[in-house]
Amino acid sequence: MPKPDHHIFICMQKRPPGHPRGSCGERGSEAVFNAFSQQLIQRNLQNVALTQTGCLGPCQAGANVLVYPSGVMYGWVEPDDVPKIIEQHILGGEVYADKVAPAELW
Amino acid sequence: MPKPDHHIFICMQKRPPGHPRGSCGERGSEAVFNAFSQQLIQRNLQNVALTQTGCLGPCQAGANVLVYPSGVMYGWVEPDDVPKIIEQHILGGEVYADKVAPAELW
């Protein structure tokens, strides 16, 4: 693809049950990834890239979603947040404030 | 970590031998990742994040390395390129032109 206008990275890290850090995988990242994938297809957003990643850092705030080039990290993301992130941030150019990770995490 | 000044993403995608697209894993991405990891530690670059990813797209140009927020994709990256990307791009603020992916790929 040509260089996208927005690049959405989703942490898919998995850790064994009971691991002290937990993981985004345990916190529903696969459903979040699928929701983004579906939104991009439904809205035909060809200028937006979507990529799975390993650990992005703030495991306690998973599922983590990081958007570049704006450099905004969203935490505790659930599938219901995905249309709002798409509408407000990707299409509207305004950060979806409800789920922005706090400054101590990013 | 706090929001980094540079975020380096490395495609670690693996595919079975003989797969028509090949993969960055097959093209040495693990050694490239290790080289970046070593450089960041040796130079104590705490303002640079390093993250493994799934497929970034231009498989034929692997190993692929993507740097944000500048949005520069490097292709055909080998471990020997890593100190040059660190010095020129991350520390010097100038793209390491030798391995920038061509415009038709990114």
From TrEMBL, chains A, B:
InterPro entries: Fdxn_Azotob-type (IPR048111), Thioredoxin-like_sf (IPR036249)
Tree of life domain: Bacteria
Protein name in the entry: Ferredoxin, 2Fe-2S
Organism: Teredinibacter turnerae (strain ATCC 39867 / T7901)
Lineage, top ranks: Bacteria, Pseudomonadati, Pseudomonadota, Gammaproteobacteria, Cellvibrionales
